[in-house]
Specification:
single chain; alpha+beta; 5 strands; two-stranded antiparallel ribbon
Length: 203
């Protein structure tokens, strides 16, 4: 039985356990592109919640960008990991991923402006929240059907536009599927919902 690293683990597991799961999954499957997509999903989790998942599995991610043989499937996501590298290291990474300058320039026009705007959320670390809040979001899936998604320990101080743009990052990922259908193709709307705990009195 393989090491499970899917949507439930990415958005439910505690940091220490999830980081260990990253290493175990890569050791078993040797799929660098899959791990990079998983790491980006966790950046989204960090941005939308009060939990600290900043730079999760940083050493592994750096290793993959420096040494993995084939990252063509995820090279367009490299910009989300710019903060993992020094300027000199970043030049090395780009040299490995892009053989032609035009390829790099084309992708920077698409991704870099958005990444720069959202980076502070993607690697923001832990925050405090006075209430127990969840995000209830709705996405259109690959088949055109509506999918509901819930994420607990939400960061309610995010603006609605910022939250929408962060959730849009999930549409870049190919690994989050149900019955072979990508779940997060297009974000539609989201709501922040406060959970109230009612104490039971008596028997």
């Amino acid at each position: 039985m393989g090491v499970n690293l899917q949507e439930r683990q990415l958005f439910k597991m505690q940091r220490k356990t999830l980081e260990k799961r990253f290493s175990q999954h890569y050791e078993e499957m040797n799929d660098a592109n899959y791990i990079i997509e998983c790491a980006l999903a966790v950046q989204v989790r960090n941005a939308l919640t009060t939990e600290d998942f900043s730079f999760l599995a940083k050493d592994l991610i750096r290793q993959l960008f420096f040494t993995a043989e084939d990252l063509q499937a995820t090279r367009h996501l490299c910009f989300f990991f710019r903060a993992y590298f020094t300027n000199e290291e970043w030049a090395t990474v780009l040299g490995r991923l892009f053989k032609k300058p035009d390829e790099y320039l084309d992708l920077t026009q698409i991704y870099v402006p958005g990444v720069e705007k959202l980076q502070k959320f993607l690697s923001s670390g832990a925050r405090e929240e006075e209430e127990d809040i969840s995000i209830y979001a709705f996405f259109k899936d690959e088949a055109g059907k509506m999918q509901r998604w819930r994420l607990s320990k939400a960061e309610s101080k995010l603006g609605s536009q910022e939250a929408f743009e962060i959730m849009h990052i999930l549409s870049f990922l190919t690994i989050l599927k149900k019955d072979g259908v990508r779940r997060f193709v297009k974000p539609l709307r989201s709501d922040f919902v406060t959970t109230y705990h009612v104490e039971k009195i008596g028997t």
